[in-house]
Amino acid sequence: MSHQVGGVRALITIAAALLLLAGCASAHHTTPSAAVGGVQTTSSPVGATVTKVRVFAPFDRSGAPTAGVAAHRSGSCFTTSITVMAADAYRCFAGNSILDPCFVSPDANRVLECYPSPWGHPTELRVHKLPTATTTVKIARPWAIQLVGGQRCLATNGTPSILRGIPLSYKCVDGFAGMRKYTGRTMKALYRASDGLVGMKSVMIAWSSSTN
After folding, report:
1. In the predicted model, what is the mean pLDDT of residues 174-179?
2. How many CB atoms lie within 10 A of CB 95?
3. Global pTM?
4. DSSP letters spanning the chain
5. Tell me: the pLDDT tens digits for 10-32?
6. In angstroms, rounded to a whole number, what is the distance separating the alpha carbons of residues 47 and 167?
7. Would you say residue 211 has pLDDT above 60?
8. CB 99 within 8 A of CB 125
């Protein structure tokens, strides 16, 4: 009888050891983590979105506009751009339309290329003179952004609405967006679609001006 009891105890001991080893193997395959300052942190997920920053160049090496000219107009410029931060960018009039930013041609200081967006075709604007006393406006935000899913959004200069404490200062194809303060390599934007749906989205591409 004592031999049978001893055999049962041995089997129980072996089963417990096998369960312990299985638990250790399972833990080995979980996401690596580390305790930092008493807080448990995990490694970044594979394939996380990293925002690509593109520096916009209005002219190519030959001095020609980087995109085909959409129209030719005459007008006047009254101050530096308030859309992008660039020493050679101005805010101008063509009839009743405000064009901003308008970049001075490297070949002629009274000819400017006014881009509606980083991906648009410019209006070529001829002026009699440029403003003399101007100061470059400090602008930290990107000129335009593209969200996950392909939605493009362009910075606006009017008074934006506020949502969750974030100014929705970007007009998108189908809604509005506002940049959130960010750290690391991924920008985030609060997006409100025209149907009222609201959500935080990663920024795939951010366009800056040529000198900011």
Report:
1. 96
2. 9
3. 0.73
4. -HHHHHHHHHHHHHHHHHHHHHHHHHHHTSPPEEEETTEEEEPPPTT---PEEEE--SB-TTSSBSS---EEEEEEEEEE-SSS--TTEEEEEETTEEEEEEEEPSS-TTEEEE-SSTTSPPEEEEES---SS--PPP--S-SEEEETTS-EEEE--S---EETTEE--EEETTEEEEEEP--TT--EEEEEETTS-EEEEEEEEEEE-S--
5. 434 444 444 333 444 443 333 33
6. 29
7. no
8. yes
- Is pLDDT of 65 > 80? yes
Report the pLDDT value the prediction gives residue 47, as an integer from 0 to 100. 53
Query: Cβ of 45: how many Cβ atoms within 10 Å?
Result: 7
Contacts 24+ apart (CB under 8 A), 96-105: 99/75, 99/123, 99/125, 100/157, 101/143, 101/209, 102/77, 103/58, 103/59, 103/210, 104/130, 105/59, 105/63
Quote the CA–CA distance of 206 and 204 in Å, as a whole number: 7
Q: Which residue has the tokens 């805010």?
A: 91
What six digits make up the tokens of 199?
């959500």
Nearest to 104 by CA among 91, 116, 118: 91
Q: What angle do CA 21, 22, 28 make, to 5 degrees?
A: 90
Taking Cα atoms as reference points, which of 64, 120, 177, 175 lies closest to residue 101?
120
Q: Name which of 14-18, 62-66, 88-92, 184-188 the model is least confident about.
A: 14-18
